[in-house]
Specification:
The complex is a heterotrimer of chains A (about 325), B (about 250) and C (about 250).
Chain A (H helix, E strand, L loop, with lengths): L9 H26 L3 H15 L3 E5 L2 E4 L3 H8 L1 H19 L7 H26 L3 H30 L6 H33 L14 E5 L2 E5 L11 H23 L5 H8 L6 H9 L6 E2 L2 E2 H30 L1
Antiparallel strand pairs in A: 1-2, 3-4, 5-6
Helix pairs in contact in A: 1-4, 1-5, 1-8, 2-4, 3-4, 3-5, 3-6, 3-7, 4-5, 5-6, 5-8, 5-11, 6-7, 6-11, 8-11
Chain B lengths: L13 H4 L2 H17 L5 H18 L3 H7 L4 H13 L4 E4 L2 E4 H27 L2 H10 L4 H30 L10 H28 L16 H21 L1
Helix pairs in contact in B: 2-6, 2-7, 2-10, 3-6, 3-10, 5-6, 7-8, 8-9
Chain C lengths: L1 E11 L5 E11 L3 E5 L6 H8 L7 E6 L2 E2 L5 H7 E4 L3 H4 L5 H11 L4 H14 L15 H13 L5 E5 L7 H13 L3 E6 L2 H7 L2 E6 L2 E7 H6 L1 H6 L16
Parallel strand pairs in C: 3-8, 3-9, 6-7, 7-8
Antiparallel strand pairs in C: 1-2, 1-4, 4-5, 9-10
Helix pairs in contact in C: 4-5, 4-6, 5-6
Classes of the chains: A mainly alpha (about 325), B mainly alpha (about 250), C alpha/beta (about 250).
Chain lengths: ~325, ~250, ~250
């Protein structure tokens, strides 16, 4: 899935680079809170682990195989902040030392495979575990989180490509196709993630970040019957998923606006391509064309900047909504 | 996906000797120039390839070595071939298949730019020792913590991949082979065990660091400085590319 | 002068499991002492107290007269050189040079003095030629020697080794023994490799069930078959030590 150079226009590369840098900066602070002076060695080892499990291929269907992305897995095992850092470092190392993923596409790759998978995975996981407690719920939540994180990443890719890719596509049908294939891959990702989390949970439940605080409260048995001691330990809040998701949403909106701005700066639509019979000769037009889907000023009468914001933001909006609902629920519980 | 064999080839060429931060900036700038080039200027991409060829010759990185590493591109090449089929706009017929003209251009665009980008990255990775490459990134203001995490990852990557291999050998020597979906749980259980091992090793490494006086800051042992002349040498590649781009526009 | 003094040391893990039940021991400067004990006796827990990674639940630890406390951690960690069982845990930097330099650099040593310490430490374990290599390209025995060097570079008062002979082939085992014998430092070696203890240490302690169960010349302890059996220690097949004076 590592996007090479040339897939996206410079505008998308730059804006996703900004998004990725902002996301990583937030997570550097968050991870420091989660791990303090253990951040460097622990995140480094987990990154190496993610790198290793990404080499696990699993059969999908009809002779094709997928490989693990690991974003949701990282989020559940070590928390969302550290999870994003690990994914970002894995992608950085792959780009620098293995020429896997273009240098100019590093922002795209970190956004799609680091931020989106971790955000969506973590949001789904939290939403499910708010509703149900216990180890069984963790397994189900891990499965769903990983399952959804994959098509979410693929859809984000599709929308990015539609907005700022280098070819005009019919976004609806491509999204449907991409989504469909990646739901299949997501099932594999979900299974591996669920069983992996389940295995760790059985042996070292204390290591599963997402399980902290979800353990049932202690019970004392005595003459006067069973007494529950206190509440379960405070949930792993990581400063709450709220700020994390809000931050994600913020940068998404910026990204969407920037991309759309460039895309709509050449608003005369499909006819333009037809008229020009393909190539544009003047250099400035070339640059503009390569800035984005300059040919598409609007989609079915809706100005592109709106479509852009809605389009790119939709995944994260859903995630934020889930997290918000989950938080409301939690507040109602106490 | 991808091989986990590192690309670095020790050597003592002009390219090898350049400070890592200069090379990083040069390759990055080169990739940007390539990405910004209009796809209709096919000859420009040819010239970029020649430029990379010169660098490869200076660095004494053999062509077959580069070609073998290009395999990494394959999944996206497949995607690129799909674009003309699913693309919109004016269509043309090639060998009885109706293809989108803008889609064809897009496919060419991706193939050319991605290949040049990958080759430039391969040359960077092949001529720069991983550790110094990270120190170079640190010089370029990549956050220290991120660089440190990458350092630890680099150090323990092989250790953990080896552990994973041993687990697979253990599985296979007992007659197990992952063939279909039902086998996923078996593989995943080893992944769980691998995570516990990795995490516990992380804790032990942290203890070993504490034992030697770690207080949350890794000591800075090496200052990588680059002279103006080295920056100039490194700038030759993106400058030449930019000149090509200038003509192309 | 006492290199190490532990008195009435007791410790329970956060989950409530008690591992140490009042450990007393004194090691004089220049001594080479083996700490023997079966698995689960509390050896590693004891070692973790020596440089303040764990804080005693009761009792005290003092290194060269300095009590191990939060405010003395820095000095203590400089004086107690801990060599971990798995050298991969200890060699975490990208090159041997960086790794050996890590400890002294944390102590504020820089420049030529740092370079001298690194080279000197590697020289003493016979690994100077590996200075620029990444640790994971070395053999297991070489890695363990470099691990010893990382600690020697801190010029410690006492060297504490956790299972130094584990996973070594006979040649590497002998080479390490020669190196350890050539070092002029106080040495505490945690092991259940009894012949290795006999080879290197004139004195041994047996830690069993969280207390020191025996303390004496290694030869005498190892000749006492009944004592060894009581603490689940066994000499290798065919290996026998005649009782002193017999």
């Amino acid at each position: 899935m590592h996007v090479p150079d040339g897939f996206f226009t410079a505008a998308v590369s730059v804006s996703t680079g900004v998004v990725a840098a902002a996301g990583v900066a937030v997570c550097l602070r968050g991870a420091r809170r989660e791990l303090d002076d253990r951040t460097a060695p622990m995140a480094g080892l987990v990154a190496a682990f993610i790198f290793a499990v990404q080499m696990l291929n699993f059969p999908v269907a009809a002779g094709t195989s997928g490989h693990l992305l690991g974003g949701a897995l990282a989020a559940i095992l070590v928390g969302p902040y550290t999870g994003v850092l690990c994914m970002a470092v894995v992608l950085l190392v792959q780009a620098l030392f293995f020429a896997d993923g273009g240098l100019t596409a590093l922002g795209v790759n970190i956004t799609l495979m680091g931020l989106v998978t971790v955000l969506v995975g973590w949001a789904v996981f939290r939403a499910v575990t708010r509703v149900a407690r216990g180890k069984g719920a963790i397994t189900v939540a891990s499965f769903l989180a990983a399952l959804l994180s994959v098509p979410a990443s693929a859809l984000a890719f599709t929308v990015l490509f539609w907005l700022g890719g280098t070819a005009p596509i019919d976004v609806a049908s491509v999204a449907a196709a991409m989504g469909g294939v990646h739901v299949l891959i997501g099932i594999g990702e979900g299974l591996i993630t669920a069983v992996t989390v389940g295995t760790v949970l059985a042996v070292r439940p204390d290591l599963v970040y997402g399980y902290r605080g979800l353990a049932p409260a202690l019970v004392l048995r005595g003459a006067e019957g069973s007494v529950t001691v206190g509440d379960a330990p405070a949930p792993a809040r990581s400063g709450g998923a709220g700020p994390f998701l809000l931050g994600g949403l913020g940068v998404t909106l910026i990204l969407a606006s920037v991309v759309s701005y460039f895309a709509s700066s050449h608003p005369d639509g499909l006819e333009y391509v037809a008229e020009q019979q393909g190539f544009i000769d003047r250099a400035t037009d070339h640059l503009l064309a390569s800035w984005g889907l300059a040919e598409y000023g609007e989609v079915k009468g809706v100005p592109l900047w709106i479509v852009g914001i809605v389009g790119v933001g939709i995944t994260l909006l859903i995630a934020s909504g889930l997290a918000y609902a989950a938080r409301r629920r939690a507040t109602a519980d106490t | 996906m991808g091989t986990h064999h590192q690309l670095y080839r020790p050597g003592d060429s002009v390219v090898h000797r350049l400070p890592p931060q200069c090379k990083l900036v040069a390759v990055f700038a080169f990739a940007i120039v390539v990405v910004a080039t209009p796809r209709e200027r096919m000859w420009a991409f040819g010239l970029y390839a020649v430029l990379l060829g010169v660098v490869a010759a200076l660095a004494r990185v053999p062509l077959p070595y580069i070609l073998r590493r290009l395999v990494i591109e394959v999944p996206f090449v497949l995607f690129a071939f799909l674009i003309p089929v699913i693309g919109l706009g004016e269509r043309t017929t090639v060998l009885g298949v109706s293809l989108s003209v803008p889609g064809l251009w897009a496919a060419w665009n991706i193939l050319a730019k991605a290949t040049l980008g990958v080759v430039a990255s391969i040359l960077l990775a092949a001529t720069t020792e991983p550790r110094t490459l990270l120190l170079g990134a640190q010089r370029l203001r990549v956050p220290t913590l991120l660089v440190q995490i990458a350092m630890f990852m680099l150090r323990y990557m092989d250790v953990i991949v080896d552990e994973m291999r041993r687990m697979r050998v253990a599985r296979e020597s007992r007659g197990f082979e992952a063939r279909n979906v039902r086998h996923i749980p078996v593989v995943a259980r080893s992944a769980g065990a691998l995570f516990i091992r990795s995490y516990e090793r992380g804790e032990r490494v942290h203890l070993a660091m504490l034992s030697r006086g770690y207080t949350g800051q890794l000591p800075v042992l090496q200052e990588m400085s680059a002279s103006a002349r080295q920056w100039l040498v490194a700038a030759a590649l993106p400058a030449a590319a930019a000149a090509v781009l200038g003509i192309a526009l | 002068m006492k290199s190490l003094e532990v008195s009435r040391l007791a410790y329970a893990y956060p989950d409530g499991t008690q591992a140490l039940f009042g450990v007393d021991l004194v090691i004089e400067r220049g001594e080479r002492v083996a700490l023997l004990g079966p698995n689960g006796a509390g050896k590693t827990t004891l070692v973790m107290h020596l440089n303040g990674i764990l804080t005693p639940g009761h009792g005290t630890v003092a290194v060269a007269g300095t009590p191990v406390r939060k405010d003395t951690l820095k000095q203590v960690r400089q004086r107690v050189g801990l060599v971990f069982q798995d050298p991969d845990d200890q060699l975490f930097m990208p090159t041997v040079r960086d790794d050996v330099a890590f400890g002294p650099a944390n102590m504020g040593v820089r420049g030529e003095e740092l370079e001298r310490r690194v080279k000197d430490a590697l020289e003493r374990v016979g690994m100077l030629e590996a200075i620029d290599r990444p640790p994971h390209h070395l053999s297991f025995g070489q890695r363990r020697r470099v691990a010893v060097a990382t600690v020697l570079a801190m010029e410690p008062e006492i060297l504490v080794l956790d299972e130094p002979s584990s996973n070594l082939d006979p040649a590497a085992r002998r080479e390490l023994a020669e190196i350890l014998r050539s070092l002029d430092v106080t040495l505490l070696m945690v092991t259940h490799d009894l012949p290795y203890a006999l080879e290197l240490c004139e004195r041994s302690l047996i830690l069993s069930d969280g207390v020191i169960a025996a303390d004496g010349p290694t030869r005498e302890l190892l000749a006492d078959a009944e004592l060894l059996a009581r603490h689940r220690l066994e000499l290798p097949y065919g290996f026998a030590i005649p009782a002193p004076g017999a």
